[in-house]
Amino acid sequence: MDAMRINGDTALAWGAIEAGVSCVTGYPGSPGTGTFTALSDTAGEYGHDAEWCLNERIALDVAAGVSQGGRRVLVCMKSVGMNVALDTLMVLNMTGVHAGLVILMGDDPGAWGSQNEQDGRFFAPLAEIPMLEPATPAEGRRMMRWAFEFSESFRTVVILRITRSFSVCEADLPPVRRPASRQALEPDREPMRWISSLSNCIPNHRRLHRNLKDISHSFEDIPFNRIDGAGELGVIASGFVHNKLQDALEGADISGLRFLKLASIYPLPGGLIADFLKRCRKVLVLEEVDPYLEDGVKTIGYDAGVTPPVIGKRSGHVPGEGELFRWQMQQALKACLPDLSPKRVFTEAGWQEEKPYRKSHCAGCPYNEILAALREEAAALGQNPFLTADPGCVVIAARYLDTKLCMGSAVGAALGLQKAGIEERAVAITGDSAFYHSSVNALIHAGSTGANLLLVVLDNAGSLTTGGQPTPDRGVPVNGKTGPVVAINNLAAACGVDQVWTVEEADPEARMRSVFREALQNEGLGLVTIRRRCEPVD
């Protein structure tokens, strides 16, 4: 069959299908959502199960059970979601896995769709779990298949790291191949195998370290790492940065360069890197976002007694923040090779040509008018409340906010402001998806401590910033059917909320303003749920 034009997200999904994935779980967050969506769209055709979870921790918990039960499972989340899933990950590293368990983690250099640009590569050494990074869609497809086999061979979680640039890049690839029928493993019920406790933690950790040594040796010759060229100036790049490097060098005389394309991010292949360093008089490291590779390469070189100068972010040759663009790579290379003349010169002035589209919000988003109305009604009452918020669609109305931290933080931050003795009221703002993700936990705390707090839930019927994934307030699709409704207002009442107001979709603005006035004057723990879908305009 003819090749098809697909992006990196879809290539990874095809690789998972070809690996015989049985289940995919996750929580919406870009990058990474595209792979889940592609797997959800093909679930009926290929027989795997695809299920959004309320948060990343639940997604990984479900995946652990699928693996123990003998079937392959993929978990999709972005880097900040790994923060949420870390509790489970830091036990799975000790117990290991049974059937293949792969985590697809999306990093966001440049914060094109995130509230931060944390570098998720550091999760790998923290959890002592192997991590790899593909450079192209074709490699990502192969790497996904390889990762499931590797996970089962070494009984370990495997993390594949991608970035936004990889997600949106495109390539012509042969159509997905239906996987050969594979027998599920028998469920693993070995005594204490899945229990990490005081009695076996140290032996498990010792076993993990032995396993990592074997993994490190195997990473020396995996097909995704490669050395090219014979020059004395070494260039190390990993993942999609290597792809962008090829663009930046197109048409240039690269006879003076030697390249190390790294795909194995942890553990780093020490022997391969040391051998590379021996052949270079200087080494430039290109990576996103932090100097993770740069520091690792220096450590390996020191231990091996091979210490050519290693430059990059620490030396100021490469920016320490944001996505690494082709024009920045050309500048760093020309600082070492002034005569370098690529076919196309990328410049800072022309960077719009490669600047990604920053995530925007729906036209007709109602959040501005809702929070403007809240502020106006508060002012009419002589109030100037502190507004704390969770991430999500509410960021479009950030000028009305005082604080926005992370998912589930709005209630806790509001409680903290009150504990600081502020005179003004604190009002927590969250979306419907964030409410289920983790705000409800803080609401339980607020209810059990008798807090005097107002929570406003802006319910736009799903995770709209990541594709409109549904929430339990309207029922979640499960195997082609809509699951039972677990309503926001019912949960709030169970958490100890004293009074609940609901502004429905069809209610006029006057009704919403009336509710705000009443709720702002109410003592105790109150909840206002405002149901407003986005209204896109032409």
Description:
The chain is an alpha/beta fold and 538 residues long. 38% of the residues lie in helices and 18% in strands. It has helices at 8-18, 33-41, 43-46, 56-68, 79-95, 123-127, 137-154, 164-168, 201-218, 239-248, 270-278, 292-304, 326-336, 367-380, 409-419, 432-448, 488-494, 509-521, and strands at residues 4-7, 23-26, 49-52, 73-78, 101-107, 131-132, 158-163, 170-173, 226-229, 233-238, 257-262, 264-266, 282-286, 310-311, 386-389, 403-404, 426-431, 453-459, 477-478, 481-482, 499-503, 525-531. It has a seven-stranded mixed sheet, sandwiched between helices. Strand 19 (477-478) and strand 20 form a beta hairpin. Helix 4 runs parallel beside helix 5.
List keywords for this structure.
globular; alpha/beta; 538 residues; seven-stranded mixed beta sheet; 38% helix; single chain; six-stranded parallel beta sheet
Could you outline the blueprint of secondary structure elements for this entry?
Layout: E1 4-7, H1 8-18, E2 23-26, H2 33-41, H3 43-46, E3 49-52, H4 56-68, E4 73-78, H5 79-95, E5 101-107, H6 123-127, E6 131-132, H7 137-154, E7 158-163, H8 164-168, E8 170-173, H9 201-218, E9 226-229, E10 233-238, H10 239-248, E11 257-262, E12 264-266, H11 270-278, E13 282-286, H12 292-304, E14 310-311, H13 326-336, H14 367-380, E15 386-389, E16 403-404, H15 409-419, E17 426-431, H16 432-448, E18 453-459, E19 477-478, E20 481-482, H17 488-494, E21 499-503, H18 509-521, E22 525-531
Parallel strand pairs: 2-3, 2-4, 4-5, 5-7, 6-7, 10-11, 10-13, 13-14, 15-16, 15-17, 17-18, 18-22, 21-22
Antiparallel strand pairs: 1-8, 6-12, 9-11, 19-20
Helix pairs in contact: 1-2, 1-7, 4-5, 10-13, 11-12, 14-18, 15-16, 16-17
